[in-house]
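Q: How would the structure tokens look for this protein?
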Amino acid sequence: MKKPQLINSDVSKKVYKSDREDQLIIEFLDDNPFKKGKKKKISPRGECNNSVSALLFEYLESYHVATYFIKKSDAKEMIVKNYEPIPIKVIIRNIATGTLCKNYGIPEGEILEYPVIEYYLKDPKHHDPLVNEYHIYALNYANPEEMKTISRISSKVNAILKSFFKRRNLKLVDMKLEFGRIKGKITICDEITPETFRIWDTLTDERYDFEIMEKKPNNAEQIYKTIMKKINILK
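A: Here is the predicted structure in token form.
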């Protein structure tokens, strides 16, 4: 399948038009996103992000959660449904770390009795500000019914993936989800990768997440490989 036109790109992937109007091609990149890293490429990064996303999208579909995923086309590419993006990032937090500790004084590592769902605008120019539903309505990004759906799906996905990781002796600390519309239906889009979730080893408390890779970029390659082994993608 040809990749005739690049639509969008960021530090993790490129999005191309497909030869079908209702489909897109996502290419996950090996580019090193860490400024301190000496290598220009991290060889398992694209394959890891593509494989983990494909696995988790298919897993969610088995629980009747709609995603835009169609199939993997090769090691670093997948075919997805064309969609209308909603410029909101949904963060679901299960264990206190990062900004939750910094902003609210919650002790690091405390398990939250009720998961926290936060909304952020996808607006790098204004540093992706934290917003509530009323900001989203005012900006006309989604209506109240759509936000109820987004909240409900986010909670369901969190419960499903917490269980998925728990069976692999991993704790889902927090995760980011993005949504879009496909024929008017709210659907999970973008990616679900080690760069959009934090997991900690239940037995050792070792941490596998993007923040750790930023602090120790020379360990990034091993972390991607370890995550693939933990969820049985890499033997």
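The chain is about 30% helix and 30% strand.

The mean pLDDT is 93.

Upvote if useful.
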